[in-house]
């Protein structure tokens, strides 16, 4: 019996696109508006710091935007107390939040599944808990998703089973009772298999804008990972879940 559905965010409920340069430039402007004389190379320094932290990750550990921004701000003698870093993180992600677009049918699908009595949650690999929660709020997803789990808060990324159990445990459900919906074999589908969940792989939208590549992993690790079903769009996701519920 299917009792719950966990969604990925980027590439699944929303289009994926690249905002890193725009984010760094927005932070530079925000600092200068507040009288902080950061040099022209500041935005590049922010991007370089974030990239260095991404590439130095070990296994499924996550790195956070908070830590990267704090390191760069300290380097430029900018205040790095918790309140200022929180404000800087919000300023950094303004372009990304303004540019995020839902995939067609995202809210109707969530509403329909919720009305059918299914538990709905979200797990996202991201460096900022704030970014994901605020995106879900702005795009009207948040009312249907409980919990919203972000790797930045958990400290581990999909496919680590621990991040899936951060949803399964509070729900009181076992893996076979839950479906994972995502666009990444490496993160979503392999992770679902490790947690004994069913999975649906969502194909990318053809007009979704410049894609963000998933973190490279060992090709052999996903060579034999196959989803239980594939969907061309979110409407098909709903149809597959309906069919599975009737069969169970």
Rg from alpha-carbon coordinates: 19 Å
- Distance linking N and C termini: 5 Å
The domain count comes to 2
Tell me, rounded to a whole number, the average pLDDT: 93
The topology string of helices and strands comes to EHHHHHHEHEHHEHEHEH
Helix content: 40-55%
Q: Which structural class should the secondary elements be placed in? A: alpha/beta
Strand order of the largest sheet: 3-2-1-4-5-6
CATH architecture classification of the largest domain: 3-Layer(aba) Sandwich
> Which CATH class of the largest domain applies here?
Alpha Beta
How many H/I helical runs? 12
Task: List unreliable stretches of 5+ residues.
Answer: 209-220
Count every beta strand, where a strand is a DSSP E run of 2 or more residues: 6
Strand content: 5-15%
Shape: elongated
Q: Could you name the CATH topology of the largest domain?
A: Rossmann fold
Instruction: Give the CATH superfamily of the largest domain.
Output: HAD superfamily/HAD-like
Keywords:
alpha/beta, Rossmann fold, 6 strands
């Amino acid at each position: 019996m299917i009792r719950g559905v966990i969604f990925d965010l980027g590439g699944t409920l929303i289009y994926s696109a690249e905002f890193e340069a725009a984010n760094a430039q927005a932070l530079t402007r925000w600092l200068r508006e507040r009288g902080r004389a950061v040099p022209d190379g500041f935005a590049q320094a922010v991007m370089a710091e974030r990239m260095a932290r991404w590439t130095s990750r070990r296994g499924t550990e996550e790195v956070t935007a908070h830590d990267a921004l704090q390191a760069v701000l300290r380097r430029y003698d900018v205040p790095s107390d918790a309140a200022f870093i929180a404000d800087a993180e919000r300023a950094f992600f303004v372009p990304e939040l303004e540019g995020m677009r839902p995939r067609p049918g995202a809210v109707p699908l969530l509403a329909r599944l919720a009305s059918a009595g299914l538990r709905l949650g979200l797990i996202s690999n991201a460096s900022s808990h704030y970014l994901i929660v605020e995106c879900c709020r702005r795009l009207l997803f948040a009312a249907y998703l409980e919990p919203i789990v972000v790797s930045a808060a958990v400290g581990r990324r999909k496919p680590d089973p621990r991040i899936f159990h951060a949803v399964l445990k509070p729900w009181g459900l076992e893996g076979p009772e839950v479906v994972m919906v995502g666009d990444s074999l490496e993160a979503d589908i392999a992770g679902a298999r490790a947690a004994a969940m069913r999975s649906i792989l969502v194909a990318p939208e053809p007009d979704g804008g410049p894609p963000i590549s998933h973190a490279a992993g060992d090709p052999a690790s996903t060579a034999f990972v196959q989803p239980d079903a594939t969907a061309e769009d979110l409407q098909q996701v709903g149809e597959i879940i309906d069919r599975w519920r009737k069969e169970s």
